[in-house]
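Quick start: read one record
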Amino acid sequence: VQLQASGGGLVQAGGSLRLSCAASGSFFSIANMGWYRQAPGKQRELVAEITTGGSTNYPDSVKGRFTISRDNAKNTMYLQMNSLKPEDTAVYYCNARYFSANRWGQGTQVTVSS
């Protein structure tokens, strides 16, 4: 079971990025998925999560700017990030939870310049 995050990069404030998380294995459709981020010197925090049924949840810091989605046919999760701010700069990780398993991807760097 592996999670491969991609799509990070350097963008100016106000710009957009789309992250992808490709999952190997057959668990994807039964996993609750999420995106987390960790900035230097800070704890890892939830950015967005999506259940197997498609329900989503966002913290107030990204609500209205970020959209999480999933394509079970492609075993892939996405995070569309719009109106990016310098405070969104962090390493972004994808996460999968199913049964007792809790899996993490390797992270992708997002840097937003002011």
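The chain is about 0% helix and 55% strand.
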